[in-house]
From TrEMBL:
Record's protein name: Prolamin-like domain-containing protein
Residue stretches making up the Prolamin-like domain: 37-108
Residues annotated as signal peptide: 1-25
InterPro entries to which the protein is assigned, alphabetical: Prolamin-like
Keyword tags: Signal
A Pfam family that the UniProt record links to this protein: Prolamin_like
């Protein structure tokens, strides 16, 4: 649980810092679209909800699944990979990327089930 709290706090700090201080938004080798296009497409609440499921044992809510699908797979993949590449998490990166794909598949399924035919 402590690791999840650190991940969540780090993510929130990165998002807030990138909004307030543009020079902190992107490290030199980071894809600029990560911050410019993806982070702003999903609410902080849902971002934390998704991170909780990928990096711990949380469960993504239905509204957050819908936000995730609207955000798009490329953004979801990019943001989770960005977090999974942190030095404290890299040892379990393949596990996190698998969970990322499972969350995506689940959310697409939920969204399709809720969409009017």
């Amino acid at each position: 649980m402590a690791k999840l709290n650190i991940i969540m706090v780090s993510f929130v700090v990165l998002v807030v810092a990138s909004t307030c201080i543009p020079s902190l938004a992107v490290e030199e080798n980071e894809p600029k679209k990560l911050w410019d296009q993806c982070v702003v497409k999903i609410s902080p609440k849902c971002a934390l909800n998704i991170i909780s499921q990928v990096f711990a044992n949380g469960v993504v809510s239905i509204p957050c699944c819908q936000e995730l699908v609207q955000e798009g797979k490329e953004c979801h993949d990019t943001l989770i990979k960005y977090i999974a590449d942190r030095p404290s998490l890299i040892g379990n990166e393949s596990k996190y990327l698998q969970k990322r794909d499972e969350v995506w598949a689940h959310c697409v399924s939920v969204s399709k089930a809720l969409s009017p035919a």
